[in-house]
């Protein structure tokens, strides 16, 4: 699509693009003396003074007490006047905000696509500080050393590509073995009051340090990387009031496993979860990160905590004392890092930490929550396996020093009684810093002494990179993990493996029994002499008493890498791992006419739409990875998985039929039920359908990140106005939009809805009403064919103009 210079001018006004070459934080007004930090901390400290100035403007307009999340988010709004004036205070859940995030983090699997898209925009460097983390592509099998070597050998092309992008554009590169994105972000970049985007759904982990950190697809990250304001509908705020204090076997994980049961996987959609109450001050910073991390599992936009002394201690322990001082000052002088007195939440849930018991969630969905005291009964009632087959701890959710030290205290007790784990036990440290510190403090020896396998500092089994050799595919078995997600087949590729999520402490206690009904709060184990004994509740330190070890310094990238314009980014044209992106075609300007390729039944997460595991290797190659599109989805009409039918009744694998219809020039749509696209931020779940000819997804409801990803890639996401209409449409039906053009021309306004005409193969016809949530900018993305087409042409035009001057 070509954009005329007048249009471009108008677009630029509406987007307020940051000029090329101005790299730094969202705002450039200088920090006042009280919040100033030494130069090496500059790009890691939010521009507090500027944020406070903007917040004052917001306050003038809204004139009401604000919650903490509102303060941080709204002070990152590009233009408060434009965003808030004349809205009668109706902001939450209604107003689209244009935001300038302070920083971006990307993990290797999603960074490939994010950077391939960024490259098409023709910029010399990123507009905000950014980091790349190599964590998802590392297999867990034989232990850290061997696995890391093997994974680097297999993935070197991708790692080299990411490293070269880092060099060219001045992005910090954290290589394989350095750690998991969210743990590294917490240790280095998250700061109270920061706003950041991450190309991973668990980016909200950084909320444990009081940031507003939001998981997005790569195209959204490109907004921030190019200095284009990033758009978000102002979330509602769910207040979670914590009272009391955790004790005994209960851990921070139980706050969120319990909350997931209350809210379900959809309950947080459209909300930021903001914790408050006196219980907050009793939690460690990393414990709060665990709670925020798994807020992704209830669909929340993000989660955050007010400033606590434990945050100050953690910042100081992670060698960021001056940032801690600045945060303390901005909070003490201006109360910036806590909610205003009298601030109102849209909903409040109260949790008493003192009486919270451990919870175990699963299988197959993170919100099926059972208190430990009822778990034995649930195992029997549901005929879940009575024996445990493996215990795994770590992942970005639970790999802090505190987690590891509490786990070590349990393993040590068992050792003293001469008892060994009954099932394989795996540990993934979250970062090189954690690995080195637990080694230094003797925990690693304790784990190895118990026969545990310590895997590389990476995602490993959590993302299906678990080369498991003790079970066969199809074998029903139960594992306990301290991870956050437990979708079918996620960890070992076996759809019959039931992953139950819980705290690392409970995983560890259970491996010594091997019995799924074991409850360490009341059940006994037998020691080496045949005597009964009970495990004492775990003990541990919040932070290492002798400080964090940095470990292998080779992993540490320069703090503020400068772009090297001459650096070459090489993508071989014969590679099956990486391929440069061809822009999608712009909108044809006609109503859409397409056929129903598939009606999906039941849960359809991004793991169903774009499977990980073995497919992770194709993340940088759109054509190759698209062969996995929707292979996990169940056909509503036949109950089969990965089966779709052509007009003549011939059955195909789902991507095969997509490829066939694409070659015939036939556009298609997929129908689905609730929370379509639940789970990860992976934008391949939007890119692949688009690449294979998908134009629209029609479902009962969407998960937030996925809905945005579809919009960014030029796919129209619609929801049924009446969800029963799902039953009126059959496979292969023809669907025509009747007022899409009107909606596009009216900048989204056809009362928020689009009318569809459905003609089933049996000739029956239906007119059905649907809803859309397209903002003005998102409509421009749709017209341009994708957000990147739109931003890219804007950027190239701007560049051309600057060169002329
Ligand atoms: C996950 O936990 O599901 C992942 C793998 O980290 C994903 C990211 C991806 O699919 O690239 C996420 O959470 O966003
Ligand atoms: Fe990695 Fe698992 Fe965390 Fe996703 S949830 S970032 S796969 S450790």
Automatic annotation (TrEMBL):
Per the UniProt entry, the Enzyme Commission number(s) are 4.2.1.-
Entry's localization field: Mitochondrion
- Entry's cofactor comment: Binds 1 [4Fe-4S] cluster per subunit.
The record places domain Aconitase A/isopropylmalate dehydratase small subunit swivel at 594-722
* SUPFAM superfamilies (alphabetical): Aconitase iron-sulfur domain (SSF53732), LeuD/IlvD-like (SSF52016)
Q: Which GO terms describe its biological process?
A: mitochondrial translation; tricarboxylic acid cycle
- Record organism: Lipomyces starkeyi NRRL Y-11557
Does RNA-binding show up as a keyword for this record? no
What's a Gene Ontology MF term here? 4 iron, 4 sulfur cluster binding
The record, for Pfam families, names: Aconitase, Aconitase_C
InterPro entries in UniProt: Acnase/IPM_dHydase_lsu_aba_1/3, Acoase/IPM_deHydtase_lsu_aba, Aconitase/3IPM_dehydase_swvl, Aconitase/IPM_isomerase, Aconitase_4Fe-4S_BS, Aconitase_4Fe-4S_dom, Aconitase_dom2, Aconitase_mito-like
Occurrences of domain Aconitase/3-isopropylmalate dehydratase large subunit alpha/beta/alpha (ranges): 70-514
Keywords for this protein: 4Fe-4S, Iron, Iron-sulfur, Lyase, Metal-binding, Mitochondrion, Transit peptide
Q: Which GO terms describe its cellular component?
A: cytosol; mitochondrion; nucleus
Q: What cofactors does this protein use?
A: [4Fe-4S] cluster
Protein name per UniProt: Aconitate hydratase, mitochondrial
By sequence similarity, the record places it as follows: Belongs to the aconitase/IPM isomerase family.
């Amino acid at each position: 699509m070509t954009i005329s210079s007048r249009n471009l001018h108008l677009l630029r006004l509406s987007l307020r693009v940051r000029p090329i070459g101005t790299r730094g934080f969202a705002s450039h007004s200088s920090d006042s003396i009280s919040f100033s930090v030494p130069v090496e901390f500059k790009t890691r400290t939010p521009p507090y003074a500027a944020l406070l100035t903007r917040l004052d403007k917001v306050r003038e307009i809204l004139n009401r007490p604000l919650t903490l999340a509102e303060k941080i988010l709204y002070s990152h709004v590009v233009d408060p006047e434009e965003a808030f004036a004349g809205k009668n205070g109706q902001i939450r859940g209604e107003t689209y905000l244009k935001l300038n995030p302070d920083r971006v983090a990307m993990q290797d699997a999603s960074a490939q696509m994010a950077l391939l898209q960024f490259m098409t925009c023709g910029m010399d460097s990123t507009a905000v500080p950014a980091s790349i983390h190599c964590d998802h592509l590392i297999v867990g099998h034989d232990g850290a050393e061997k696995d890391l070597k093997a994974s680097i050998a297999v993935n070197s092309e991708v790692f080299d590509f990411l490293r070269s992008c880092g060099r060219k554009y001045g992005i910090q590169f954290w290589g394989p073995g350095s750690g998991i994105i969210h743990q590294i972000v917490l240790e280095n970049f998250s700061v109270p009051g920061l706003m950041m985007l991450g190309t991973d759904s668990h980016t909200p982990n950084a909320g444990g340090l009081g940031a507003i950190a939001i998981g997005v697809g790569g195209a959204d990250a490109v907004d921030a990387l190019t200095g284009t304001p990033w758009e978000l509908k102002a979330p509602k705020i769910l207040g979670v009031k914590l009272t009391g204090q955790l004790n005994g076997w209960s851990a921070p994980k139980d706050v969120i496993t319990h909350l997931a049961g209350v809210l379900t996987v959809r309950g947080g959609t459209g909300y930021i979860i903001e914790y408050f109450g006196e219980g907050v001050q009793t939690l460690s910073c990393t414990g709060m990160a665990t709670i925020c991390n798994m807020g992704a599992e209830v669909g929340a936009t993000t989660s955050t905590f007010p400033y606590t002394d434990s945050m100050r201690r953690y910042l100081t322990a992670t060698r960021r004392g001056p940032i801690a001082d600045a945060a303390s000052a901005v909070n003490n002088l201006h109360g910036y890092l806590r909610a205003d007195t009298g601030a109102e939440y849209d909903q409040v849930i109260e949790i008493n930490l003192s009486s919270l018991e451990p919870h175990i969630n699963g299988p197959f969905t993170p919100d099926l929550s059972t208190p430990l005291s009822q778990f034995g009964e649930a195992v029997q009632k549901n005929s879940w396996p009575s024996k445990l087959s493996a215990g795994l701890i770590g992942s970005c959710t639970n790999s802090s020093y505190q987690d590891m030290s509490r786990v070590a205290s349990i393993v040590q007790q068992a050792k003293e009684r001469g008892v060994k784990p009954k099932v394989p036990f795996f540990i993934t440290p979250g970062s090189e810093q954690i690995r080195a510190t637990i080694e230094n403090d003797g925990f690693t020896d304790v784990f190895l002494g118990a026969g545990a396998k310590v895997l590389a500092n990476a995602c490993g089994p959590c993302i299906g990179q678990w080369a498991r050799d003790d079970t066969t595919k199809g074998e029903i078995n139960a594992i306990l993990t301290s991870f956050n997600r437990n979708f079918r087949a996620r960890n070992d590729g076996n759809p019959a493996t039931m992953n139950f999520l819980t705290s690392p402490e409970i995983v560890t206690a259970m491996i010594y029994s091997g019995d799924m009904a074991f409850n360490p709060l009341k059940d006994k184990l037998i020691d080496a002499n045949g005597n009964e004994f009970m495990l004492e509740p775990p003990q541990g330190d919040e932070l290492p008493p002798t400080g964090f070890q940095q470990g292998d310094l080779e992993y540490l990238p320069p703090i503020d890498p400068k772009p090297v314009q001459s650096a070459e980014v090489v993508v071989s044209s014969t590679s099956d791992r990486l391929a440069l992106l061809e822009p999608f075609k712009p909108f044809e300007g006609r109503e859409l006419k397409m056929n129903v390729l598939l009606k999906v039944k039941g849960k359809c997460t991004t793991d169903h739409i774009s499977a990980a595991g073995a497919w992770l290797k194709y993340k940088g190659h759109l054509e190759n990875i698209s062969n996995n599109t929707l292979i996990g989805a169940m056909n509503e009409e036949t109950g089969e998985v990965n089966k779709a039918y052509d007009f003549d009744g011939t059955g195909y694998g789902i991507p095969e039929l997509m490829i066939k219809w694409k070659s015939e020039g036939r556009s298609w749509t997929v129908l689905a039920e609730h929370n379509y696209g639940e789970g990860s931020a992976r934008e391949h779940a939007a890119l692949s359908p688009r690449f294979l000819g998908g134009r629209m997804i029609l479902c009962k409801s969407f998960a937030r990140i996925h809905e945005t990803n579809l919009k960014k890639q030029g796919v129209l996401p619609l929801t049924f106005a009446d969800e029963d209409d799902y039953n009126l449409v059959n496979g292969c039906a023809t669907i025509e939009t009747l007022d899409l053009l009107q909606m596009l021309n009216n900048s989204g306004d056809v009362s928020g809805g689009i009318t569809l005409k459905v003609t089933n193969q049996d000739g029956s016809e239906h007119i059905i009403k649907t809803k859309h949530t397209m903002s003005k900018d998102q409509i421009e993305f749709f017209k341009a064919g994708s957000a990147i087409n739109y931003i890219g042409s804007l950027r190239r035009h701007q560049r051309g103009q600057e060169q002329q001057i």
